Amino acid sequence: MTFNWFKKLKTGLSKSAQKVEKAFSSVIGKKKLDENSLTEIEDQLISSDLGVNASMKIVDKLRSHKFELTSKNKEISKEIILDVVKDELNKILINCEQSFFKDNNDKPHVILLIGVNGSGKTTTAGKIASMLKEKNKKVVIAACDTFRAAAVEQLEQWASKTQSSFFRGSNNADAASVAFKAFEFSIKENADYLIVDTAGRLQNKTGLMDELSKICRVLAKLNIKAPHNKIVVLDGTVGQNAHSQVKNFNEQIQLTGMIITKLDGSAKGGVIVSLAEQFKLPIFAVGVGEKVDDLDIFKADDYSKALLNLE
Ligand SMILES: Nc1nc2c(ncn2[C@@H]2O[C@H](COP(=O)(O)OP(=O)(O)OP(=O)(O)O)[C@@H](O)[C@H]2O)c(=O)[nH]1
Ligand SMILES: [Mg+2]
To answer: Using CA atoms, how far apart are residues 198 and 147, in angstroms rounded to an integer?
Structure first.
């Protein structure tokens, strides 16, 4: 991850960081860390979307460091407290670091992007294609949102911007059959990656959720391992609602990971911590803007530092 990216991530997460920072502001400069303060910190962390479990873990850690935190300079310093918190955040987030570029012995490697309406799937498809193109990979992007002509055009623009091949079905075609044909086409083209963009769907709409299973089933007919990645794209501004999205999509098609978008300007960036804590799924990437280079792979330490406004 480049320095520029870290800067972008930090700027994007600044509102979230302000919220998290507030959790500790009341104890900084104090002589002791009492139970009341710890409870206050825990409440603030929960309201910063870190979730109950992660917030409890952080507070437990602070409690166990109480002596260290208060004996050095006789008053609690921001640096020391944030260092302890960063270590604890890293412990939770480190297991989510995983690249979706690995394990590409299988060609084409199929990446299926799913999620609720407007979560950032199409934009993310374009951004991933661009990342892959930078690695000199041959990429096909397929439009399985066959109901909205605008959706197909939006994806086509991303394909041309990233010099990827584009595959579309006929209007109102069955999404699964388009996915199948796109896979056949990608095999014929000897592509390294096939990125399948799907229509947005609410996680409680059974018919549309079943369509996702069907897409996975037909892709597996051509390669039992496909789709190699089933990634839910989550809007980072929705906060705790992301949990029910992950839960339902995961129950439907067993996700291989998550991508969280729109972290720029969101005050709910802490949600990544609660998602990591609860689902223990890889976080492949995070998005901090609408442009092609506003997505990068997820790095636990960078994320923790950005969330705590550290250098
Ligand atoms: N600020 C910001 N905007 C984003 C980000 N990712 C996507 N967007 C914007 O969010 C809006 C929706 O993005 P799309 O990629 O069309 O979302 P989608 O999930 O494909 O939407 P549907 O196909 O309608 O379900 C667009 O205006 C994007 O430019 C991000 O990381 N940050
Ligand atoms: Mg879309």
So the answer is: 10
Q: Which atom of ligand 1 is nearest to the CA of 117?
A: 25
Domain-by-domain residue ranges, the chain? Answer: 109-255
Alpha-carbon gap, residue 38 to 52, rounded angstroms: 14
Amino acid at 273: V
Neighbours of ion ligand 2 (CB under 5 A): 121-122, 151
Which of ligand 1's atoms lies nearest the C-alpha of 125? 15
Which residues have C-beta within 8 Å of that of residue 217, sequence separation ≥ 6? 176
Task: Tell me, using a 6 A CB cutoff, whether residue 289 lines ligand 1.
Answer: yes
For the chain, give the number of residues: 311
Ligand located closest to 123 CA: 1
pLDDT at 103: 60
Identify the nearest ligand to the CA of 201 by its number: 1
Task: For the domain covering 109-255, report its CATH number.
Answer: 3.40.50.300
Average pLDDT of the residues in 38-44: 95
Cα–Cα distance between 18 and 305 in angstroms, integer?
13
Q: Which residues, 6+ apart, have CB-to-CB distance to 40 below 8 Å?
A: 23, 26
Q: What percent of the chain has pLDDT over 90?
A: 82
| Distance in Å, CA 115 to ligand 2 centroid | 9
The alpha-helical segments, DSSP class H, found in the chain are 3-12, 14-25, 35-47, 52-64, 66-71, 78-93, 121-134, 149-161, 175-188, 206-222, 241-253, 271-279, 300-307
Q: Which of the ligands is closest to the CA of residue 121? A: 1
CA of 28 to the centre of ligand 2 (A): 45
